Amino acid sequence: MIEEGTAFKCLFLKPYGQYIREREREEGFPSGQLSALTALNIMTLQERVRPRLSDEAQQRLEMAVYDEPIRFNIILADQGLCIAQPYLPETRGVDSPTFMIRKRWANGGLHQIFEQVFNSLWERREVDA
């Protein structure tokens, strides 16, 4: 998809940051486990995926981190499809409900709300990922 022109903006909770430690405690993970998994995901994209892409496609794979309370896992698949998963107290992320949201209106609706949430976090991102 990236080679064909799709741009990927990957925004991760900051490994070893304050809010990932809070999530580990809340979900009952050993200290550092979610941090290590997140760091591995970032490293995989940086060291295994990006080098396989053409120079042009590499520019379309952006990665960043943020260190704020995690509320949603958001995937904006295109201009009209959003996959959103809330993070619930004392519930592992994989056990939370997942919502598929299709954009039906130019303004308003859930798609636009989740797009705004993602864009807001992206604007405050740390680009050292």
**Mean of the pLDDT scores?**
91
How far do the termini sit from each other? 22 Å
| Low-confidence segments | none
Please count the helical segments. Answer: 4
Question: Secondary structure elements and their pairing?
Answer:
Layout: E1 8-13, H1 18-27, H2 33-49, H3 55-58, E2 61-66, E3 72-76, E4 81-86, E5 99-102, H4 109-123
Parallel strand pairs: 1-2
Antiparallel strand pairs: 3-4, 4-5
How would you explain this protein's 3D organization?
With 129 residues, the protein is α+β, with helices and mostly antiparallel strands. The protein has one domain (8-123). The protein is built from four helices and five strands, in the order E-H-H-H-E-E-E-E-H. Strands 3-4-5 form a three-stranded antiparallel β-sheet, covered by helices on one side. It has a two-stranded parallel ribbon with strand order 1-2. A hairpin with a 4-residue loop joins strand 3 (72-76) and strand 4 (81-86). The longest helix is centred in the first third of the chain and has 17 residues, at 33-49. The mean pLDDT is 91.
